[in-house]
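tool=predict chain=A
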Amino acid sequence: MASKDNIAKKISNINGEKMTYNNRLTIGGHSEPLNHSFYYDSELISNNSIILHDAPAGAGKTYASCKIASQLVRSGERVLFVQPTKELIGKTIKELKTMKGDVRIHRLDGDVCQKVIARISSHLRKTDADGQVLFITQDAFMQLPYVHKPDHWNLIADEIPQVHKVFNLRYKKIHSLLTSILTTIPVDDVWSQLVIGDHKGLLKLETDMKSDNGVAKFKEALSLIKSAHWSTYVNTNEYSQYVASDSKKETAPVLYAEMNPSIMSGYKSVRVAGAELKESLLYKIWQTKNIRFKEEQLSELKYYSHQNGESVNIYYATNTNWSKEKRNKHKDDIWIPLLKKVSDLSENKRFLYLGNNDTGDLFPHSDNATRLPGMPHGLNDYTNVDMVAFLAAYNPSPQQAAFLRFRGLTDEDIIRDMYYVKAYQAILRGGIRNPKKAEPQIVVVPDRGLAEWLQSVLQGSKIEWLGLGPPEDSFKKAGRPQIHTSSAERNRKYRQRLSTKDHLAVWQNLMDKIPNHGEDGKVKCNEFCDEIPYIYRYNVPQFRACIWDFLWSTHSSKYIIASSHDMFIDKLREYHQRTVPSKCANQVMTMGCPALHPTNMRTESNIVCANGIMLDNDEGDLTPEKFAELFPHTEMILFNTYSCTSLHRRWRAYIPTEFIMTPPMYKNVIEQILKAVEKEGYNQKGTGGKKKDGFDRSKKNCADLMYLPCQAREKSASFFLEFRGPERKPLDPTQWVNFDEEPEIIREFVVSSSSGKTCNVHSDLLQEEIDFEIERWRAGNIPKQRNDAYSTLYYALKRRCIASERVEEIMTNEALLCSTKRLKDQRLGQLKRLIRLSKR
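tool=predict ok
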C-alpha cells in the first residue's frame, strides 16, 4: 500500500495552484487513469477562460449553440456537444439537420449503443475525421476517465453541469474491500480528502467487480474517487469511526464529490450555455480556482430578458421555507389545501406540475394535469399551457449544507442553485416560454422566498399569498420559542449580557486572535494579507476595511490600514477611478475587522470592531446631496455604485467615525441614522405621505459585503462627492447610543482608539489548550495512528490561530521527541507538507 506521506505529495491544491495535467499516470510500468490528487492547470482551460452564454430559459440557447456547432463543423472543426438528457439530444440533432450545410453527426448514448463510456472513449481515440459533431449526455461526459487529444475538439455544454455528487457508503460488512484501498488526507480539522492509497488493491478490486455482483455496487463511488476530474471528501471523524468498527452499528459516512475544472481542460474552446448561469454552484466554486469566465451574448435569440412578466401571477402557499418535513407535518392545513387550490386555479384547463418522487401522482382524478420530469430541460411541447405548479422541495441535508459551506458557499448560494433555479426551469416549460402569448399565466409555488425570487426574474409579475396555514407572524418558527416581546427588550437584555463575564470572555477571545506584537508605530495606508499574524492589535484602531475577492469568500485577501480617515478616503477615491468590466468582476469589502478563523472569517460573530460606517442606497427619492444636507455637521463621502445611471441614482455613503465601534454599536448607530432620516419625511417604502429613502436595511452589520467604489457602467453617471471642512466632523458613535451601558473594558477599548491605544487582553486558557492538544497527540503517537494524530495536532493549533512560527516550533519539538531517527524524519517531512498545504 502506498504510504500516506507519498500520497500527500500529490494532494490536490484546493485553491488552484498550477501543475500540468496530462490525463494519465504511469504506475509500475503501465498507464493508469490519473488520480484526482494531482493538480489541474487552469491555464489549459482555453487560455484560462470559459465562454458563458447566459440567456433566459426558452430564448433559444440550444438552437443558437447548434448554429455555432454547425459553423465550426463546416470550417473543419470537431465539436463535442454535451446535453443533460437523451431526449434533448434527439431534438437537437433534428434541429441541426435542418441547418444549411452537410454536418457529420455522431450520437453515443444509451438509446443507440451499449457500454456507452467505452464507445465514447474509443470514438475519441480512433476518429481522425475533422468536421464532425459528437453528441453525448452530461452523465457520460462526467464519467469519461480521460479524453484523447482534447485540443482537437471544441466543447459545447448545453445547460450547466452539476458540480457536486453525493453518495452513501452503505455497504454493510463488505465496506472494507473498498475502504482498505483508500486513505484520507486532512484538509482541515473536520474534513478530509479521500484518495486511492493502494493501487495494486485497486486493480484487484476492479477485476473482482467484473465477476462479483456484490462488489459491483462499489462502481459509482470508486469511479469518482479515482477520477482525475473529481475530488471526494468525507467527514474525518465519521469515516474513521466507520472504518474502525462494525458498520452495522455505525452510521455510514456520506461521500461528497466535487467536479474539478480539469474536466474541461485542454479543449480547443469551451462554451457553457444556460439560464441563470451565475447562480450555479459551478460558476461560484470554479471562480475561486482561478478559472475566468468570459461572457458572450448569443445571436438571434428570441429574447434577452422575459418580456411577458406583467402577464404572470405567482401564487405561494406559505411564508416560510418549504421542505418535505413541512409538507408531511402540515398535510391537513397546507399540503392538501394547496393541491385543491391548484385544481381550482386551473379552472378545468390543462396545467403542468412537478413534485418530488415520493409524492407519486398528485392529481390522479384529473385528466388536465401533466406531470413534468425531474429534469425538464429542453421540453418545448407545452408552450400552449398557461399554468404551471411547482410543488417539489429540494433541500440539502444538514451535513451536505455543512460541506457546501466548507467549500465556501453561503446558504443563499445553496438554495438558489438547488431550489430556485430548478423551479425556474420547470415553470418555463409553460406559456411563459412564448413571448408572444398574451393570455394570463399562472404559477403556483410552495413558499414566498421562491415566489419573490421568480418575481425578480420575471420583471413585472405579481405575487399573491394563497392564504394557507397561519400567516408569517403566527407561524411557529423552528428553534426555541420567542423570549422577548419587542426589539427594545431584546436590546436591553443584550446590554445586560454584555456586562457578564461570559460575554466578555467571548469578546476577549476574539481579541486574543489578533497578535499583540510588532508595535513600531509606522503605519501607512497599506494593503496587505500576510500569513498569520495578519494584523497586529495596535493596528486595530487604524483598521479601515477588509477586502474579499468574491461574495462567497470565507477568508479575506487584503486589509486597508490607515493612520487617518483622510488616508482611507484617498484610497476610496483611488478605487473609484477604476473601470471594471462588470459588477461581479469587482471585489467587495466589509467595514468590520475580522478575527482569524480556520473556516470562515466573515461571520458576524467573528467581527471584533468597525471604524467608520457604510450605507447602501438603492434608488430612492433621497439624493446624495439631500442626504448630506440632513447632517450638516457630519463628514461624509458619497459615491456611485456600478449600477448607477443618470435616471436611477444608486449610491453609497461612507461616514468616518471618531471612535471604533463594536458590531452591536455599529448596527445601533445605523438604526439611529435611519430614524433621523425618517423624521425628515422619508421612510423605507415611501408610504403614508412620505418619500422613499432608498436605504438597504438588510445591510446594518459591519460583516455585510459591499462592492468597492468604481466608475458606473454609464460613466457619465459616476460621482465622488466629498462633504468635508471645518464645519463637518467625523461622527461620534458615543453620542448616538447609550454608551454608558457598555461594559467598562469595552468603553476603554473604544475610547482609547482615538489616541491609537488598544486594550491588551491575553487569554490565560490558551497555554492550557496547547498543552491539552500536545498530550492528545502523544497518546496517539503509536503505529497506524501517528500520521493522523500529528496532522490533527497541527490543525488544532492552527484552529486556535496561534502564530505560524509558534506552531512550527511546537510541531518541530514534538517530532524531535520521537524515539528513532526514521520517525523523526517522517514527522519533520510531514510537517513541511502540512505547512505547504496550509499556505495554499
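The mean pLDDT is 78. Residues 710 and 798 are 36 Å apart (CA to CA).
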